[in-house]
Design a protein that fits this description.
With 249 residues, this protein is low in regular secondary structure. It has two helices and no strands.
Length: 249
């Protein structure tokens, strides 16, 4: 449960909160399980805070600092997190459905099992993030940075990933069916045994990608770079190849 003193200080407003934190730089605020639904926390300094199971439904956290905070199992559905700092935050099992994370910094964050479905991740930094098993159905991650991220077994079905960066990312066994990767950078990405059925990879860079055992049935690879890619055991039924040819059923 939240520390009642910490919660009362936060509710007094930004000035009081900042002054208190400046006087207590090594203290980690405990706001766990607090009800902060629809709270206006724009620009708040909540770095290294305990927000375990905190209800932040539709909270306004624009440009807030939540770096290294514990947000595991927190409810951030519909929250406004534009340009928010979440570097190395723990978001294990958190609910981020339909949250607006445009321009947010989640580099190195732990999002194992998080629900990020239908969230807006345009230009979001998820470099080195751990997204194993995350639900990212219909997420909008156009232009996002996912370099070195671990997305194994994540569900990105119908995701918008146009011009996103996945350098050396791990997408093994992920569900990427009907996802849009037009112009995406997937150099050295691990897509082994991933479901890529009906995915759009037009003009994507898949150089040296690991596509062993991947399901590319009906996928569109027109203009894609497959130089050095490993397609051993990949399923290519009705796949549109880089030269425009279609693999026979």
């Amino acid at each position: 449960m939240a520390n009642t003193q910490h919660l009362a200080l936060l509710k007094k407003g930004a000035v009081t909160w900042i002054e208190w934190r400046n006087l207590n730089p090594n203290l980690e605020p405990d706001l766990s399980e607090a009800n902060l639904a629809e709270a206006n926390l724009r620009g708040a300094y909540l770095g290294r805070s305990n927000l375990f199971k905190t209800d932040l439904f539709k909270a306004r956290l624009i440009t807030a600092n939540l770096a290294e905070s514990n947000l595991s199992l927190a409810n951030l559905a519909g929250a406004q997190l534009l340009d928010t700092k979440l570097v190395k935050a723990n978001l294990t099992g958190a609910n981020l459905r339909e949250a607006d994370l445009r321009g947010a910094d989640l580099s190195g964050a732990n999002l194992i099992g998080a629900d990020i479905s239908a969230a807006n991740l345009q230009q979001t930094d998820l470099g080195d993030a751990n997204l194993i098993g995350a639900a990212m159905f219909r997420v909008n991650a156009i232009g996002a940075n996912l370099n070195h991220a671990n997305l194994s077994q994540a569900n990105l079905n119908q995701a918008e990933l146009i011009e996103a960066h996945f350098y050396a990312a791990n997408l093994s066994k992920a569900n990427l069916g009907e996802a849009h990767f037009t112009g995406a950078y997937l150099f050295r990405a691990n897509l082994s045994f991933a479901d890529l059925s009906a995915a759009d990879f037009r003009w994507a860079n898949l150089g040296k990608a690991d596509l062993r055992g991947a399901n590319l049935t009906g996928a569109n690879l027109r203009g894609a770079n497959l130089a050095g890619a490993n397609l051993d055991g990949a399923h290519l039924k009705e796949t549109i190849m880089p030269d425009g040819s279609i693999v026979s059923p």
